[in-house]
Amino acid sequence: MPTDLPNTRLQPELLAENVILCCGEDRQTVLAAVPPGPAPLAEHHFRSYSFYRYQDHTLVLSAIGTGCLEPLLYEMLSLKKVTRIVLIGTAGALPGSRATLGEVYAIEAARASATALDQDAGEAPRAPRWSGPVDLPTATSVSTDLYYGFTDAAEGPYLRHFRNVARQASGRTADLVDMEVAQFYTLCSFAADISEVEYLAVKGPANRVTNHEEQNLHTPAVLAKAFRAAFALLGLEFRPAGAAPAAAPKPEADMTKLIGEIKLYWTIQIAIGAMLGVIPSVFGKNSYAALIICLSLFLLLTIGSVYNIIGNYYIRIEGARIGLGGHQENVITPYLCKIYCVIAAILGGYIGYCVALALDLGGGAWSHALVGLGSLGCLYAVYAIQGRIFHSLLAGSPECYRDYARPLRAMFPKWLVPFLPRSARP
Fold first, then answer.
1. How far apart, in whole angstroms, are the C-alpha atoms of residue 202 and residue 176?
2. Which residue has the higher pLDDT, 152 or 315?
3. Which residues contact 402 (CB under 8 A, 6 or more apart)?
4. Helix count and strand count (H, E) for the chain
5. How far apart are the first and last CA of the chain?
6. Could you give phi then psi for residue 274, rounded to 5 degrees?
7. CA–CA separation, 48 vs 103, rounded Å?
8. Helices (H), 214-331
9. How far apart, in whole angstroms, are the C-alpha atoms of residue 400 and residue 96?
10. What would the pLDDT profile of 70-125 be if each residue is shown by its tens digit?
11. What pTM does this model have?
12. How far apart are CA 137 and CA 120, in angstroms?
């Protein structure tokens, strides 16, 4: 039995028969997604690897890609203690994917493309080896060591330097793209002479390959669901809520960003409200001066209405990420949206009135028309801006926000919001 494993310095007592392996994810995000329960019995950290030994399983964290996975699996399986490994983590959703953002899938087939194992893995997709029941929807994956090889970077000048990779990548179709599954299946199958191990990958899309900004948004939900699936596959039960793993961030520390978002939200809303208190003082001023002041107030009004939507979104997402809130009623933000629209209509009417005075139109029909047009124009401008911001956020949002945003969806139907971003169009 190997006693000097140079890449992991792994000792047999750190390994259980059941292993949950996670590659390429942020350590704190992974540990925050670990099901609640007792702290690990032992920990070991060396190079890019971390091992957390629990009573009935070992959680292993690794860096990304083939170069980290190959020495880890060889050294871990050479100890001949592991009998089942579930690989969990996030992936990207390819165009035409059947997979839903934020959900997890058992990977039934994975092809290697632009990896260090392409020739040995072969053209045929690699499959898991698992004898137990798998109560999960399935998906296919293509695995690569070239992180941006399957994104929109592949359509630009970036991949011109990798002609063979680009040609190979163009022939790969799958639901997901990741950086480990095909290599994981291949390496585990090659390790039969070292250890007879069963292996399965559970992955979920955290982003579309055309939108990397979604990745960190959906990652906590994907990891939480992947852990639940791994526990079920390995026959482990969720323990009653208890102490989090020793290395997990404390809830108080986790709330820092949430509290910061709430403070910023209300600071901006109160500041805008105070500035709008200037409106009564505008009446009776010189028409040109009043017009400039009203236009400035309209700009501030727009800023407040925009952050009303954006701040509300990030507060809900951050609350969900740290496990607060559950089902919440979205009450304040929809009411503020309506209030901003009413104020915009009043302000727009006075802008139209100031324009009529500046043009010396008197109090006739043209003056009334400008007042009405100004009121309707500013009302719809603020409404449309809020609607566009909302649908931009909604298009890439997790499920917790979609349910929370029902009042805003009713307030901003797509047919009434102009210039929707492409990702939000029906």
1. 11
2. 315
3. 394
4. 13, 9
5. 60
6. -65, -40
7. 27
8. 215-233, 251-276, 279-282, 287-321
9. 24
10. 999 999 999 989 999 999 999 998 888 888 998 999 999 998 888 888 888 777 88
11. 0.58
12. 29
